[in-house]
Hints:
elongated; two-stranded antiparallel ribbon
Amino acid sequence: MTSRLNGWSPFIVMFLLAALPQATTPQSKTGEQPEVQRIVGLSYPRIANLGGIEGTVKLIAKVSPAGTVDSVRVISGNGLLADSARQALLEWHFRCPNVSKPCEASVSFIFKLGEICDRQSCPSELQIDLPSEVTVQAKRIRGFKD
């Protein structure tokens, strides 16, 4: 005997709840945004940190049907920041909406610098807002002294 929830069987309710995240996934120009399966972090590029460079890097990843990133195209952003973001995105893994066709993923990396760090190496902090935004924050490295 199956129980009912306002006329809905528990199986149908579970199915609808499982489908909800896909239904709320934003659309890209070429269709649905793929689901992120694995994220590889990154550190704030040292030379960009020393130069006080901050900003947003927008990228588009071409994703194979297997979910691996085949290539990454830089749409906008500083080159010193973009290379680090591009290298990290190449290691991500996705699930395309149609698992038999390749897809594209649009991801933005936001690089921010905070107060000055007095150590030689200061760790970066990541904030990941799925499906398409990563904030990389680090303390500013003190420049060279005469």
